[in-house]
Amino acid sequence: MTAGAGIAPASGADGSRPFHFGFKKSKNGELPSIAQEGFMDMLKRHGSIFLGDTASKELYLTFDSGYENGVTPQILDVLKAKGVPAIFFITGHYVKDQPELVKRMVAEGHLVGNHSWSHPDMTTLPDARIVSELSQVKDAVAQLTGQQEMAYLRPPRGIFSDRVLGASKGAGYTNVFWSVAYKDWDTKAQRGAKYAYDSVMAQLHPGAVILLHSVSTDNAGALPQIIDDARAKGYTFKSLNELKVKQYR
């Protein structure tokens, strides 16, 4: 089955056709795939990230942080205790609402990525507005933390187009998608740490880019065991800055 909403209706041949990121999940150790989604060549052409090196047992831990639900401090505590790097994709709301957590992310060696200022469907915006959405986050984080560089973007809602990828790449960003995910974002439908653990571990594969939402109490509870058991299987957690090989399949 495909994880994601699939292909949205076409809207012309000018690169504006919107896509909702989706992928065929990894099962029984097989690698995931985007070959049937209609956008693999587009991601490759723009240098977007789907997979790292599938010949290496490396994992990349990424969090989407649109707002705070009280569990990010716990997540940061676990990452610090385990010595695991991560990237947090944050919005303008998060920067304004949780400045101390953003400062802590940077101080503890994590990357802070761009999730846009207002979390819009960027395929509906002109290029200038896309760049503005991104620059507002970057500038606010720089002013708050001193972090001058922001190289990674996760498109809001997982919606993108050729034009959006091109405009954001022109603004200096690599779009980061994912190869491990499950429905974890609904705070009213949390199912327990074991469910989170099982959902992530069942999909682990070499070169995995793991998407977790930092609002999930399930994720916060499962994270220590996910890290320990992934390491026991021979995996190493790396920073996105260490991702040297991008693969598409």
From TrEMBL:
Pfam family, one: Polysacc_deac_1
Record-annotated NodB homology domain positions: 57-238
SUPFAM superfamilies: Glycoside hydrolase/deacetylase
Domain of life: Bacteria
Cross-referenced NCBIfam families: spore_pdaA
Name of the protein this chain belongs to: Delta-lactam-biosynthetic de-N-acetylase
Species: Paenibacillus xanthanilyticus
Gene: pdaA
